[in-house]
Design brief:
This protein is mainly α. Helix content is about 75%, strand content about 0%. The protein starts with a helix and ends in a 14-residue tail after the last helix. The N terminus is likely disordered. It is found in: Cell membrane. Pfam families: MFS_1. InterPro entries: MFS, MFS_dom, MFS_trans_sf, MFS_Transporters.
C-alpha cells in the first residue's frame, strides 16, 4: 500500500515549478458562488436542527412501533436520495432558480406539517415532502456550484476543487451547528424545533428570491428527451458513481459498524457523539488546507484514489486491533483512527467527485448527472448496507468483517475513469 501511495502522490509533470501563492478564496468568489455556499450552510443548519431528533419524537411522543419509525426514516431517505435524478432532470429543463425556490417552499411546508402531525399518515406525508424538497434544491445548488467552480478555475483563480472543498466545509459546519440548535430548542418541544427549521428555509427562500438571477450566464436548458438512456450508457460516469458509492457505503458504517465497535470497547454508545463531533470539526477546519494541498499535487482521479485508499486504511486499522480485544480508552483508539482516516478520505473524495461531474456530463445535462451521482450511489449504499448488516451478524472472527469492508473501497480504485475527462487540476 505504501508503494501505491508513493505513486499517487508523485507530482504530475510540470508541477515542480514554483506556483504563485494561493489567493484567499472567499474574497475572489463571485456573488453567486458566495450565495450558493452560504445556502448549503443554511440548508444543513435547518435540516439538522430537526431530523436527528425525529426518531425519538416518533417513538416517544407519538408512540410509533420501531418498525414504523424505521419505515418513516427509510421513506424520507428514498424521497430525497432516490429522487435526486428526477430533481436533476427538472433543473436541466426549468433552471436553478425555480428548483431552489420550489424546494424551499416544499421544505417549509414539510417542517410545519411535521411539527403538527400526530397520525402516522400525516408524518409520512410530511417526511415525503421534506425529502422531495431536497431532491429539488440540492441537485440545483450542487450542480451550479460545480459549474461555477469550473468557470472560476478557467479564469485562472486556482483549482475548482478548492471551491468545492469550501462548499463541503460549509455543509459540514451546518451539520455541526444544526443539532446544537435543535438540542436547545427541544428544551421547549419538537414543534419549536420544526418551526425553527422552517424559519431557516424562509430566510433561504427570501434570499434566493432577491439575489438569485433568473437566468445564469452559460447555463443551458435541455428540452429534448430525458437523457436517462444516454446516462445509463455512459460507462465512465457510471464507473465514477460506483467508486463514489463505495465511499458512501464506507461512510454509512459510522451508523452501522462503528456503534457496535464503540459499544464493544466501552459498554456504551455515548462516545459516538464525540467521534461524530471529531469528524465534523476535522472537515470544518482541515477541508480547505487538504484541498489546497491536493490541488497542487493530484489530478481528480488520483485525489479520489488516494481518498479511497485512506478509507480502506481506516477499516484496516480496526481490523488489525480487533484480535487484541482492547477495551476502555485504549479500545476507542482504533475507532478514532477509523473516523480520522475516513474523514481525511472524505476530504479528498467528495470535492473531486463533484468537480469531475461537469467534465463527464453531456451538454445541458449537468443537473441530471449531479442528481444521478447521488441516486446511483445511494442505491449502492442501500444494497450494500443490507449485505454489511448480514456480514456483521454472521459471527465471523472479529477482524474479518472490517477486512472485508476495507477491500471494497480499495478495489473500486480500479473502477475510476482513465484517460480524457480525468480532468487534471490546473
Amino acid at each position: 500500500m505504501a508503494d501505491v501511495f508513493s505513486r499517487l502522490l508523485t507530482k504530475r509533470p510540470g508541477t515542480g515549478r514554483r506556483r504563485p501563492p494561493h489567493k484567499p478564496i472567499w474574497k475572489h468568489l463571485s456573488p453567486l458562488l458566495r450565495l450558493l455556499i452560504l445556502t448549503q450552510l443554511a440548508f444543513n443548519i435547518g435540516f439538522f436542527a430537526v431530523l436527528p431528533f425525529l426518531a425519538d419524537h416518533l417513538g416517544t411522543a407519538i408512540g410509533m412501533a420501531g418498525w414504523t419509525v424505521g419505515l418513516v426514516l427509510g421513506l424520507r431517505t428514498f424521497s430525497q436520495q432516490g429522487l435526486f435524478v428526477v430533481g436533476g432532470r427538472l433543473i436541466d429543463r426549468y433552471g436553478v432558480r425555480p428548483a431552489v425556490l420550489g424546494g424551499c417552499v416544499l421544505r417549509i411546508a414539510g417542517f410545519l406539517w411535521l411539527g403538527l402531525a400526530k397520525e402516522t399518515w400525516a408524518v409520512i406525508g410530511a417526511v415525503l415532502l421534506i425529502g422531495f424538497a431536497a431532491a429539488l434544491f440540492s441537485p440545483a445548488v450542487e450542480s451550479e456550484v460545480a459549474r461555477q467552480a469550473v468557470v472560476w478555475e478557467e479564469e485562472g483563480n486556482g483549482s475548482r476543487t478548492r471551491v468545492l472543498a469550501l462548499f463541503s466545509a460549509a455543509g459540514q459546519a451546518g451539520a455541526f451547528v444544526g443539532p446544537l440548535l435543535g438540542g436547545l430548542l427541544l428544551a421547549v418541544d419538537f414543534r419549536t424545533a420544526c418551526l425553527a427549521g422552517a424559519g431557516v428555509f424562509v430566510l433561504v427562500l427570501a434570499g434566493h428570491a432577491w439575489l438569485m438571477p433568473r437566468h445564469i450566464p452559460g447555463r443551458t436548458r435541455s428540452r429534448e428527451g430525458s437523457g436517462v438512456r444516454e446516462l445509463l450508457r455512459h460507462r465512465r460516469f457510471l464507473a465514477l458513481c460506483c467508486a463514489y458509492g463505495s465511499y458512501l457505503l464506507a461512510y454509512n458504517q459510522l451508523y452501522l459498524a462503528l456503534p457496535d465497535e464503540v459499544e464493544r470497547a466501552t459498554g456504551s454508545q455515548a462516545p459516538l457523539a464525540w467521534l461524530f463531533a471529531l469528524s465534523s470539526l476535522l472537515v470544518v477546519f482541515a477541508q480547505l488546507p487538504v484541498a489546497r494541498w491536493a490541488s497542487d499535487r493530484l489530478d481528480l482521479r488520483r485525489s479520489m484514489a488516494a481518498g479511497l485508499l485512506l478509507v480502506a486504511a481506516g477499516f484496516a486499522v480496526v481490523a488489525a486491533a480487533r484480535p487484541a480485544g482492547w477495551t476502555g480508552l485504549a479500545g476507542l483508539l482504533p475507532a478514532a483512527g477509523y473516523v480520522v482516516l475516513l474523514t481525511l478520505g472524505q476530504m479528498l473524495i467528495v470535492p473531486a467527485a463533484r468537480a469531475w461531474v461537469p467534465d463527464l456530463a453531456k451538454e445541458g445535462r449537468i443537473g441530471l448527472y449531479t442528481g444521478a451521482l447521488s441516486s446511483v450511489s445511494g442505491l449502492i449504499v442501500l444494497l450494500g448496507s443490507s449485505a454489511t448488516g448480514s456480514l456483521l451478524g454472521m459471527g465471523l472472527p472479529p477482524a474479518v468483517p472490517w477486512l472485508i469492508l476495507a477491500t471494497v473501497p480499495a478495489l473500486t480504485v480500479a473502477l475510476l475513469p482513465r484517460g480524457p475527462g480525468s480532468a487534471p487540476v490546473r
